[in-house]
Amino acid sequence: MQPTLAVRAAEAGKHLVLEKPLALDMAAADAVVDSVAAAGVASVVFLTYRFDEQTAAWLHTMQELAAAHGPWEGALSGWTGCIDLPDSPYAQSTWRRARGGLWDWGPHALSVLDALMPGVERVAATRGVRDTVNLNLEHRGGRGSASSLTVTAAAGGVGTFLLVWGPGGRHQLPPLSGSYVSTYSRAIDQLLASGTTDARHLLDVAYARDLGRVLDAAERYLDRPVDARTVAVSVLETPG
After folding, report:
1. Contact yes or no for 138/122 (Cβ under 8 A)
2. pLDDT at residue 233, rounded to an integer
3. 47: which of 171, 175, 205, 206 is 20 to 30 A away, CA to CA?
């Protein structure tokens, strides 16, 4: 429902704060971006980690280290949730059931990786248990990242982590420090500031659309014929 409502709101001259993912198909995402641009309204997409104060401070430190010592060379992350838990507020989320961790966790993972690594040039992916997608990205300059994404993890496996490494050392993303109310409030404040100054917010609909393009590419990769993406490797027995 979000893309259709977002277009209507933009055409009515309203500034927009939207959820991730912006849309589940690229045509709908493009329609939102075009409508926002045509109307000249401000937009912010609520990517939770990027609006968390501790995460923002950590990313700033990582960027300073990269500037001082050299770019980060790789990253590894896991983003695991479970919508099947009895108290999950997302148990009835139809789109999460249909599109899984790739589209639920994917925008979060990409938004953090984007602040650390150069842009994505190539995408590959494999399917794991239940809805799990193992996302492998080749970034500019030959750098790489790997992320496992799922919303149907076993109860004991719920949690998130991200490691980044390079000349500046090896560092781990800290846990979220604020409540969802406080992070959402920051998003609203920044939307209001963007609307007042006419300055485009970094995490706007165009940014969210570009994250969606990576996820869409991964989904199209997963839908390719198996023989087109998989090489079977035999494990040789140790001599003797």
Report:
1. yes
2. 55
3. 171
